[in-house]
Amino acid sequence: MTFQPSEYRPLFVGGHRQTLYAWARTRRFPRLPAPVERYFDVAADARVLAHCHWQDLPASRPTMVMLHGLEGSSAAHYMGGVSDKAWAAGWNVVRLNQRNCGGTEHLSRGLYHSGLTHDPLFVMRELIERDGIGAVVIAGYSLGGNLAMKLAGDLGDAAPAALKAVCAVSPTLNLARCVDALERRPNAVYQWNFVRKLKTRMRRKAAAFPGEFSLDALRGLWTVRRFDEAYTAPYHGFRDAADYYHRASALRVVDRIRVPALILAAEDDPFVPPAPFSGPEVAGNAHITVVITPHGGHCAYVERATSDYDGYWAEREILRFASFHVVADTRAG
Fold first, then answer.
1. Which domains does the chain have, with CATH numbers?
2. Using one digit for the tens of pLDDT, what is the confidence trace for 260-313?
3. By CB neighbour count within 10 A (0-12 exposed, 13-18 middle, 19+ buried), where does 29 fall?
4. Are 168 and 156 in contact (CB under 8 A)?
5. Is 269 a catalytic residue?
6. Beta 92-96 vs 46-53: how paired, if at all?
7. Is residue 255 flagged as an active site residue?
8. Cα–Cα distance for residue pair 126/136, rounded to 1 Å
């Protein structure tokens, strides 16, 4: 038996309209309990913060580890949306902030990048080994989707038995293609927003670690590519932005994925081109389920709500896919 996605029926069409609507709309999750803060010491000089929702007897329940997108945080609307649905279905949820995100610049000496799988891998292993969690699913949006897929590809045949699946919504699997798309004129508002946040974070980082980060390069810097040339690439030892995009892209390793993986992507996503999801690296791997819809925008996928469903289709599909494979693995065992 294979997973069958449900039909997506967009509330309205237009990639920009979906993207901006989902980004701007206020959401509340009254049934989701207040999170418990947990810190993970992922390196000698790096600590990350997770907001966790634990069921009674957590080790007896599956756990969803959520990864956010570029300059997002555990408070992103989709992080709350997936958490709300997973919690109601009996899952534990770990909403992970990447290094420096969610106001945590002071917790880590270094920066983060789009392929830094070390941290979610550390978190997953601690949950398995220290907490006794027997079933983990990692789900990410945008940059977080790239991380989820790259983590599974990096592990390959060595993935722990507790890792039951990975899910990626609007994932930036080919970073170079995504940055190219971001630089198109119709996407100027997205680029401006990303760069505004990146620059603000670097100023907070420099304030937290005086003398360690020069802010001179921020003047006149208004593209993600130039930010990566000035900061991300040299700090992490990449030759330049192009080398960083190549080495940090999950597309290099998705052919090695050996756990069930779900990719949800839209043809009208403003800055994540769908072509790589049909390439041989992805299509040739039987472990990967790809669902490409005509509409949905970037990290949006809003459809009509009902009395018991808020209309966020991708969030529901993540939980359906995760639950399908946890149950299937339990039956097979």
1. 15-185+249-332 (3.40.50.1820)
2. 999 999 999 999 999 999 999 999 999 999 999 999 999 999 999 999 999 999
3. middle
4. no
5. yes
6. antiparallel
7. no
8. 11
Tens of pLDDT, residues 26-49: 999 999 999 999 999 999 999 999
Residue 251: which of 284, 297, 227, 229 has the closest Cα? 284
- Other CB atoms within 10 A of residue 205 CB: 20
Contact of 224 with 143, CB cutoff 8 Å: no
pLDDT value of position 1:
74
Q: Taking the CB of residue 146, how many other CB atoms lie within 10 A of it?
A: 31
Q: What DSSP state is assigned to residue 239? A: S
The alpha-helical segments, DSSP class H, found in the chain are 15-24, 77-88, 118-129, 143-155, 175-182, 188-208, 224-227, 233-236, 241-248, 280-283, 313-332
In angstroms, the CA 144 to CA 121 distance is 13
Question: Of 45, 107, 100, nearest to 71 (Cα)?
Answer: 100
What are the structure tokens assigned to 210, written together? 């005086």
Mark the ranges of the chain whose per-residue pLDDT is less than 70. 328-333
Q: Rounded distance, CA 198 to CA 242, Å?
A: 19
Active-site hit among 269, 295, 323, 325: 269
Task: Write 31-40 long-range contacts (CB < 8 A, 24+).
Answer: 31/84, 31/87, 31/88, 32/80, 32/83, 32/84, 32/87, 33/87, 35/74, 35/95, 38/94, 39/107, 40/119, 40/122, 40/123, 40/126
For residue 318, the tally of other CB atoms under 10 A from its CB is 28
Angle at which helices 175-182 and 188-208 cross, to 10° = 110
List the catalytic residue out of 249, 298, 323, 329.
298
Contacts of 229 (CB under 8 A, 6+ apart): 240, 241
Q: How far is CA 262 from CA 92, 259, 311, in A?
A: 20, 10, 19
pLDDT recorded at residue 327: 82
Q: Annotated catalytic residue: which of 74, 142, 249, 323?
A: 142
CA 205 to chain centre: 22
Asked about 142 being catalytic, the answer comes back as: yes
